Amino acid sequence: MTAVSPCAQAPVTTERLILRLFTADDVEDRYAYQALPEVARFLYRPPLTREGCAESIAARAGGTPWSADGDVLLLAVCRAEDPGVVIGEVVLTLVSARARQAEIGWVFNPGYAGRGYATEAARAVVSLAFGPLGVHRVFARLDVLNTASVRVCERLGMRREAHLVDNDLDGDRWGSEYVYAVLGREWRS
Ligand SMILES: CC(C)(COP(=O)(O)OP(=O)(O)OC[C@H]1O[C@@H](n2cnc3c(N)ncnc32)[C@H](O)[C@@H]1OP(=O)(O)O)[C@@H](O)C(=O)NCCC(=O)NCCS
Asked: Most buried residue among 59, 100, 112, 119 by CB atoms closer than 10 A?
């Protein structure tokens, strides 16, 4: 696996966005969307508490390693015109360091939905994964009912590789998931 630190890659800029590490000042902005039941609806966990938001930001304040299974890069997404306000986040998890496999996920404030921000931010993180971070395959798992997220994957050019049926419990509901993925060589071409 690459020795490059993912933190050293931030901030990442796109046409309209800045992706940077979270700071303690971002807790309220993050809580504003992570606390919403409609945002957590397909995340297979309850909405986050304010304390949960703060703890996961604080846990990464010392930097983000990127060498062992389970290492996580969590990036706050801000609009370039409003860099102090966090509108969402993209997370990249190193699922297998040996096989250079990473899982991507995204959560955005619904107040900023429908403007292409999640797709633009995710595209930048996939490029980061296949560039400096040396990832071979990026994949996403999402509930089949999460149509907005399906559309993000498809806009990114990810391939639907699997349809898992009743593979998890979301509370007392059986959840079915899609797996979407793209390889580095496909992304570059
Ligand atoms: C998944 C999620 C991030 C998708 O948000 P989104 O707003 O639909 O996605 P984007 O920000 O990429 O916006 C895309 C939409 O903006 C539209 N759009 C408008 N202006 C645009 C522009 N200038 N550029 C690009 N797209 C634009 C696109 O056409 C698209 O609309 P469509 O999906 O109806 O076709 C959001 O629903 C969310 O946070 N959900 C809760 C958390 C979650 O479930 N995460 C996934 C777990 S696997």
From this structure: 100
